[in-house]
């Protein structure tokens, strides 16, 4: 190894042929120890590995590396399916592992040209990795074909593949991928494989089939590893008291008492909290309860979440311009010439992520503070090493991330504050590993919420009832956190304008499933129903006319009309509501509700969805995503609410932050997947934002009353009914 010490692991991951080779797989490093030259190293790699994305063994077992987080959305199956499809792998021999967290090798195209990211957010995983995984699979297949051609001394053009075999039909020869391992040869260069050179979707053998998800069996048996399950020798436990006033600074008043507490090893002060490390979690939590802390005032100190809307209304009415989000035509002129103008305000409270697994991480820092290992369930990020190198002051290549299953993310685990905190504690306790826990109370009181916001919409129609102008002012904190989803690209409205006006209150905020689409699509879709009702028009037919120039969007609306039997008369105590959402994929949804006019409780009985997501990789999983998104949407629309008084979060756990119960889940959720050969789009965030508007629109049909403030708690529903 001394002779080849100039070749780093990162160098091994690159090759002159333009394809990445993976170093570090079991069984390879011991052989590298005896290598005396780069040429010998390459021979070992050529024998045992095909590409960075796959390991192939002599018995034919295939391990495909998954670069994305797995938090229940099925990426551990859908991405390897794409690779295996192009590789012509026998799926029964495939297993899946998380890839190393190395974005230059395993990253997908980023949000800006030339960047690569490992970031499981924004429903972009399948969309961004679709070509990457297929190309990598095709290259792996080419390596196998090339090796077989060399072994048999035949032209590669005469060979084909099927179910982990290379076949020469003329001579009736075939060889399995496993048998080829001892003959593997890396070609001097590899084809880049343009989209047209990959399989035609009509030839797919795996993609589009309902294959069992790779993560389900071990989750059912309890063998699946989440970071909360990690136990290491000599592991210590850390907790942090952060308070419930965001941005407040602590002064510890009883440090001697805490230091003398049973099992406590160290007290670690932070700018916003007090950390405690102990021999056991129980001892750490017991000491945390005894902390006496004086908290400073903060920017959030005077914030009243239920009273702030008056200030937001003034901001919306102000003549001071905000940041323009979209502009088409001349909306001011459209409003000025309108036969009728409609103006409405829509509001939404803070919402908590409520992911099932509490935030946690395990970090082991070496005794010399020069390297670290991290075990965590993360949605990754722009920094694939999750901020740990900066905390420790070491190079990124000295940090190894062991990605685990996530017990829910919804955007919260794309924020790596809990990983960075663990690194701070682990640095102090090196070389002992430290496990940091956020309790549910920690995460709820010091959460990073979907922002509170207000949307002011103004729409205009001409004398024939045509929608001529649509303006949208978003007031709230966080830029894209509140401003995404304001575009109406699939509605033919000639004059449109949207802007964001900032209003910051010092509250921690973060992406929450579908981000700004939830509040903004709620406002847009409800506004359309209000206009349709005023004109005496059927809201679904009203949308159809607006979609005349968007055939794919229109097709989802036509299909959901059929699924829901929209035109069939419902029972007198029920009504249907419709909504359309574009969040990567295109989806139209219809819900059927009833309302208890004595209690104010809304019940969603049925939900129908028609979805165009392009090529569907795994149909059953897409339907599961739709069902989960609808249920989460109902929960957030009817129940979920964080309130803040004098800057302090009022909810502490699920006895105060209500979630949807099993008894309130719809009787039926039906999803229809529209066939398409278009590039696949994300599906994880399409269903959730259509729920609140569909419910509100059904409520408008049933009662003639307008719900404009999320969530629709029984108290608010009764207030609207009595207004």
Automatic annotation (TrEMBL):
Classification via SMART domains: Ald_Xan_dh_C
Protein name per the record: Isoquinoline 1-oxidoreductase beta subunit
Gene3D superfamilies referenced in this protein's UniProt entry, alphabetically: Aldehyde oxidase/xanthine dehydrogenase, a/b hammerhead (3.90.1170.50), Aldehyde oxidase/xanthine dehydrogenase, molybdopterin binding domain (3.30.365.10)
Transmembrane region(s): none
Annotated Pfam families: MoCoBD_1 (PF02738), MoCoBD_2 (PF20256)
Matching InterPro entries: Ald_Oxase/Xan_DH_a/b (IPR000674), AldOxase/xan_DH_MoCoBD1 (IPR008274), AldOxase/xan_DH_MoCoBD2 (IPR046867), AldOxase/xan_DH_Mopterin-bd_sf (IPR037165), N-heterocyclic_Hydroxylase (IPR052516), OxRdtase_Mopterin-bd_su_IorB (IPR012368), TAT_signal (IPR006311)
MF (Gene Ontology): oxidoreductase activity
Organism of origin: Algoriphagus antarcticus
Domain of life: Bacteria
Location of the Aldehyde oxidase/xanthine dehydrogenase a/b hammerhead domain: 221-299
């Amino acid at each position: 190894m001394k002779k080849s010490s100039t070749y780093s692991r990162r160098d091994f991951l690159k090759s002159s042929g333009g394809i990445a080779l993976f170093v570090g797989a079991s069984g390879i490093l011991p052989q590298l120890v005896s290598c005396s030259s780069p040429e010998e190293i390459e021979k070992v790699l050529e024998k045992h590995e095909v590409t960075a994305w796959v390991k192939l063994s002599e018995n034919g077992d295939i391990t495909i590396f998954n670069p994305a987080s797995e938090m229940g959305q099925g990426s551990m199956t859908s991405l390897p399916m794409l690779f295996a499809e192009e590789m012509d792998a026998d799926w029964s021999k495939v297993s899946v592992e998380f890839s190393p967290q190395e974005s230059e090798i395993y990253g997908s195209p980023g949000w800006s040209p030339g960047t690569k990211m490992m970031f499981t957010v924004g429903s972009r995983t399948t969309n961004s990795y679709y070509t990457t995984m297929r190309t990598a699979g095709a290259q792996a297949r080419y390596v196998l074909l090339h090796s077989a051609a060399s072994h048999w001394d035949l032209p590669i053009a005469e060979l084909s593949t099927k179910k982990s075999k290379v076949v020469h039909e003329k001579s009736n020869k075939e060889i399995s991928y496993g048998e080829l391992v001892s003959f593997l040869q890396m070609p001097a260069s590899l084809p880049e494989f343009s989209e047209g050179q990959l399989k035609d979707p009509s030839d797919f053998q795996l993609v589009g089939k309902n294959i069992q998800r790779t993560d389900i069996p071990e989750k059912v048996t309890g063998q699946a590893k989440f970071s909360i399950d990690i136990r290491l020798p000599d592991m210590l436990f850390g907790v942090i008291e952060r308070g419930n006033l965001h941005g407040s600074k602590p002064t510890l008043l009883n440090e001697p008492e805490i230091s003398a507490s049973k099992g406590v090893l160290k007290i670690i002060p932070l700018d916003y909290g007090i950390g405690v490390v102990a021999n056991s979690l129980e001892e750490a939590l017991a000491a945390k309860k005894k902390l006496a802390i004086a908290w400073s005032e903060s920017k959030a100190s005077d914030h009243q979440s239920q009273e702030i809307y008056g200030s937001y209304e003034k901001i919306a009415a102000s003549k001071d311009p905000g940041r323009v989000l979209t502009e088409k035509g001349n909306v001011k002129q459209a409003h000025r010439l309108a036969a009728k103008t409609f103006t409405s305000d829509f509001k939404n409270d803070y919402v908590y992520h409520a992911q099932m697994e509490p935030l946690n991480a395990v970090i082991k820092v070496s005794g010399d503070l020069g390297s670290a290992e991290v075990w965590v369930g993360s949605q990754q990020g722009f920094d694939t090493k999750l901020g740990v190198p900066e905390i420790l002051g070491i190079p990124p290549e000295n940090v190894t991330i062991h990605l685990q299953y996530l017990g829910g993310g919804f955007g919260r685990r794309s924020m790596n504050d809990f990983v960075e905190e663990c690194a701070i504690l682990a640095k102090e306790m090196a070389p002992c590993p430290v496990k940091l826990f956020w309790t549910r109370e920690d995460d709820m009181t010091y959460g990073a919420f979907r922002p509170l916001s207000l949307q002011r919409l103004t729409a205009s129609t001409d004398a024939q009832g045509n929608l001529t102008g649509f303006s949208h002012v978003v007031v709230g904190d966080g830029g894209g956190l509140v401003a995404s989803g304001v575009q109406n690209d699939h509605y033919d409205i000639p004059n449109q304008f949207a802007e964001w006006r900032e209003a910051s209150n010092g509250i921690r905020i973060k992406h929450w499933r579908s981000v700004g689409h939830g509040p903004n699509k709620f406002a847009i879709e409800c506004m359309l129903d209000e206009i349709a009702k005023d004109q005496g028009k059927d809201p679904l037919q009203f949308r159809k006319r607006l979609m005349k120039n968007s055939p794919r969007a229109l097709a989802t609306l036509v299909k959901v009309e059929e699924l829901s039997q929209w035109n069939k008369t419902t029972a007198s105590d029920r009504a249907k509501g419709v909504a359309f959402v574009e969040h990567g994929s295109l989806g139209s949804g219809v819900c059927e509700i009833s309302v208890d006019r004595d209690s104010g409780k809304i019940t969603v009985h049925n939900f129908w969805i028609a979805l165009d997501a392009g090529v569907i990789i795994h149909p059953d999983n897409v339907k599961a995503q739709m069902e989960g998104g609808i249920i989460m949407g109902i929960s957030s629309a009817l129940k979920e609410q964080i309130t803040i008084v004098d800057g302090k979060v009022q909810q502490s756990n699920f006895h105060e932050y209500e979630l949807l119960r099993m008894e309130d889940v719809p009787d039926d959720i039906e999803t229809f997947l529209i066939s398409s050969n278009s590039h696949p789009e994300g599906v994880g965030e399409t269903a959730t934002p259509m729920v609140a508007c569909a419910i509100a629109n059904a409520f408008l049909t049933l009662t003639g009353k307008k719900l404009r403030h999320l969530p629709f708690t029984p108290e608010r529903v009764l207030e609207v009914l009595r207004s």
